[in-house]
Each structure stands twice: as C-alpha cells, then as structure tokens.
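Course assignment 3, question 2. Fill in each field.
Student: A.L.
Task: Predict the tertiary structure for the chain below.
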Amino acid sequence: MSAPSLQQQLAIPQRLARLPGWTILLVWTAAVLLPLYILVVSCFKTTAEIYDNRLGLPQSFAFDNFVRAWTRADLGHNFINSLIVTGGAVVLTIVVSAMAAYPLSRYRLGWNGIMLGLFLSGIMLPIRLASVELFTLMRSLGLLDSLTGLILVYSAIRIPFAVFIFANFMRVLPSELDEAARMDGAGEARILFQIVLPMVKPAVSIVAIFTAIAVWNDFFFPLIFIFDDRYKTVPLAISVFVGQFRTDWGLVFASLAISMAPILIMYCLLARQIREGVGAGGGMK
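Answer field:
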C-alpha cells in the first residue's frame, strides 16, 4: 500500500480548516429554512391543527385557506395598491438617486464629500422617530390617505441608501466615456440614462430589490397614513385576520404565502445581476 502523496496530506488540514465555516453556513441555512417550512406547511392547516402539530405535515391539505384569505381580506384590490406603491417607489428612488449620485461620482467638486456624507447620514436616521412631524407635514400637503403620499415617503427613506450604492458603482467607470459622449454632443441627462445607468445594471437591481422588499413588507407607514379601505396595502389587509381574542392562523399563513409571491418572482428575475453587483461591490476600493 503506497504512502499518501504530499497533495493528499495537505488536503486533510485544508478540509478541517473549512469545517467551522461550513458549520456556520449549515446552521444559518437551517435558521432561514425552518421558518419558511413552517409557513408553507401551516398554509394548509386549520388553526386547531397548527396548535396541535406545528412542525408536522398537514393531515389534509386545506387549499380553501388561500381562497378564503383572498376573498375575506380583498387581497386582489390590495395587491394592486401594493404594486402601485412598490413600483412607484422603486422607479422614483432609482431615477432620483441616479441623478444625485451622477454628479457626486463623476464630477470633481470640492463639496462632493460633504454632500455624500449628508446622504449617508440619512441611512443612520431612524425615520420612525419623526413619525409625528412626518404625519403633520403630509397632512398639510394633503397627502394623507393617498398612494402618492406613501410613494413619496418610501422614496425619501430609500434614496440615501440608493445614492450610496449608485455612487460607488459609477465612480469606477472610466471618465473617457463621459468625455467621448460630450464630444458627440450628448447632454448630461443623455449620458446618465443612456450610457452610465445601463453600465451599472447590477446597482439598479440591488436598489430595486432592496427597495421593493422594504416597501412591500412595510406595515408601519400604511397603518398611520392610510385610513380608507380603498387604499390599504397587503400588510394592512393581512392584519384583519389577527384579532384580540381570536386569530385565524391558517388564513394568516396563507395570506403571507400569497404576499411573498411577487417578491420571490422579482428576486428570481434579478438574482444573477444582484450576485454580480455584490461581487463587483466587494472588489471596489
């Protein structure tokens, strides 16, 4: 029996060195998948069965939970409201943030660092502490009980983060692109939207998915700014199943599963660009 080669001898310590990392990844994966598993199996259970058998498979798959959740909470109408608010906030955030990040990253001005620092301070500001002032401002502008008001609030909240992302991606693009476009007679708006922005698609994807997740899942601002049932979003609609004395958990889990679908579809469509963006961002100086 021949002795193991040097390469085989070195492979064992290398595998042992990877063991803590793999263990952490497995624990983290289990921590993420367990709540998802509970959500999926609970969608098909009655409330009594959820209390009696939380982790087990349902005895009979109760597909009527989805039908009752859709009709009782009027999820169809609220889905449209959430799509309008989320789509409007994503588009407005991308456009405004790209326009703000373009001069901060492409022009060499003395106050660029100060302006970028002001935008970054918006990330550290807990906006919920200013809810009273924000409510007063929206009431004075006539934006309460409207989807437009929600779009503007969400966009303002997400712009600091988006400016930071766009500025880092735009900064590494060669300046010769801008100079060549100006020599051809292109204006700054055309340079931004037709040359620079298409080259930072991973940044657009990152901003879009993070903004969409934050807006779609938010319950706080619709709760304090929306009073009319016609303008309720999906999180507000789901709250009707949670009562003070009785909660129909089967309908809650079914409605949560329905509300997850658009974000999962969006992530699957943008997953490749998001991975590319995270990899490119990790290599930036």
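Instructor remarks: Residues 67-281 form a domain with the MetI-like fold fold (CATH 1.10.3720.10). The chain has a mean pLDDT of 82.
Grade: pending
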